[in-house]
Amino acid sequence: MKHNFYRSIIILTLLVLTGNQFKLHSQSTGNALSWSINTAYNHYLMRIVHEQYEAREQEIGSAFGSKDAMTAYIEKCRDSYRKIIGGFPEKGELNSQIAGKAQYQGFHVERIIYESLPKRYVTASLYIPDGPGPFPAAVEVCGHGLGGKIPAPRSAILFALNGIAVMVVDPIGQGERIQFVDKNSQTLTRGSTTEHTLLNAGANLLGSSVAAYEYWDNHRAVDYLETRNDIDKSRIGMYGSSGGGTQTSYMLGLDDRIKVASVCSYFTERLRVLEEYGASDGCQHVPYEGREHLEIADFVLMMAPKPILIMSGKYDFVDYWGAVRAFKELQNAYTALGSPEKVSMVSVEGGHGMPREKREALVRWFRKWMYDDDRPVTENHNITVSPEDLQCTSTGQVLTAFSDNISIPDYHLALTDQYEKQRNDFVRKGKTAVRDKVIELLGITIPAGKIIAEPTGTVKMRNYDLYKFQIIRQGQMPVPCVVIYPEGVNRNSSVIIHLNENGKNEFLSDERTIESYVNRNEIVVAADLRGYGETADPLSLNDTKYWNREYRNAMISMHTGKPAMGQRVIDIMSLVDFVNSDKLLKGRKVNIVANGSYGPAVIHAVFLDPGIEMAEITRSVKSFNEYLLNPMQRDVYTNVLYGVLRYYDLKDLVGLAGRNRIRIPD
User: Which CATH class for the 84-417 domain?
Assistant: First the structure.
């Protein structure tokens, strides 16, 4: 009895160890690339970015030669900007109201509410100098502080004391305009940068952006200023720091009423930002900027030759060397236009934001161009404005103060409903028309060249062989894959392309699932598309506040005009081409089994590639609308296509693919 007991223990231990050996062995043999670098996908994308901006450098360099050439370059930039911004709604009534006033020494503050769109309430503070007016005015756009216009910006007070009115606008996701709040008006996210990023994904799917929404709110703020008798309509400017610098930059090329401006703690080279830190917050990107060769300096340059002041900190996290280089471009451009005196840069021995030295330089710059007064400005007051004199709503949030307020998530749902007939009409045009639009939105051309399948290893298992390959296609990232080839393969055996969002190594460690395929004599090609598995971007390089494990690469892909989903569709086509050309695999039916975030790419690939017999997708979205219904979810940017919901939804492609080729179990 004792002998049998010990024998049983030994056998059980060997079985456990054998199982663990198998799992560890599978994991260690799963990598198929002949090299290993965990930032490879980012390096691939940054090569595209460098190529695009190298072309842009040549274009602007040629424009420095003459006034006509520079004027033509600026107009080209404006055209490109208008092409990608997504358009704007019709103007309605502002329905503005003054919620209260408070007098201070030398100025008074008014609490303003207006509607930039029907029931989109915008809250703002208007600082009006004492005296008869009318006064020149500036719109101050806030940085990314959650409080927005509260506490009172010291720059606005200094402007008012120097004869210039200032309207400080709460951006979406800040101040009294937070979009994700509970019934007690408390925010549900960590801050405005997270809100902007979550909201931007939905906006992108609908062909717009948070940057465009902010532009519209600020544009309407200028409309409001023009309704007032105490404001000089011919002298309106704009400025902002950090996220406010972003908003200012995006405003200048689209609103000719801005006569003087300043950008603080934002101005640099986009190329340097993407190299040093990756993509910024969602509100700081308009898709396709790189494809259109638009740098940050180009957005500022669109207001030339009107006066522009750049303010930078030498120790700012906004790259100072990029700011210096970009400012030289502005200098050369303004010189070519014959107005070198209208561009200037202030650099301080400090970091991010707008300290006193910058505030004094800012107000002096505006007085120079609004009053023809270049005397130094000194901030020597100790005035503070009470938060109670700045809050416009009864609850502190428009979402809870106005029962009819339309939040940005609700606006997105209304838009997708509005676009439904447009989508239906488009889909009825037929598969050819839809195919052309799909290819356009994916940012791809259907690959024509042959792939190269480089063997990178072979492992003999008990009842199957395991072959490793890297699939190479000119101009694309190599696709690593592992072929599981059962010993019982016959002429009826099909090929399963297996895509696991957690990487093929997770699949290869699942002995039971592999055995089920082997027992059915099915050949499995387990692969990692770019950005997954072997080439997954390190989580440490993707800030958790963006709620996306590959945020930087997904945003850079959109920036270049080559969305990540489109790149992965190419990878799937490369795998199909591999199956159709390999001597052991060709001539067999090709099916796909995929899960999670791979789903939308697989749907697009099956629609485009008739060589795929069928796909089964689990744990994935069935409609892009799912991202709009639940904007507070993770990893949305992985599958964003700019403007896709104006043309089709995933379920449309499933139907057009035909013959029940795509199965998505409930």
Answer: alpha beta
Determine whether domain 18-44+433-663 maps to CATH 3.40.50.1820.
Answer: yes
pLDDT tier, 19 (very low <50, low <70, confident <90, very high otherwise): very low
Sheet holding 135-141, edge to edge: 97-104, 107-117, 120-129, 165-169, 135-141, 231-241, 258-264, 308-313, 343-348
> 18-44+433-663 and 84-417: same fold?
yes
- Rounded-to-integer distance, Cα 335 and Cα 277, Å: 32
The C-alpha atoms of residue 376 and residue 15 are separated, in whole angstroms, by 83
Q: Which helix (H) or strand (E) holds 590?
A: strand 590-595
End-to-end CA distance of the chain: 52
Task: For 101, list phi and psi in degrees, rounded to 5.
Answer: -135, 155
Using only the alpha carbons of the chain, give its radius of gyration: 29
pLDDT tens readout for residues 135-163: 999 999 999 999 999 999 999 999 999 99
Q: What is the pTM of this model?
A: 0.94
And the tokens for 527? Answer: 């692969």
Residues 351-361 have pLDDT tens digits of 999 999 999 99
pLDDT tens digits, one per residue of 154-189: 999 999 999 999 999 999 999 999 999 888 888 888
Assigned token pair, 294: 């638009």
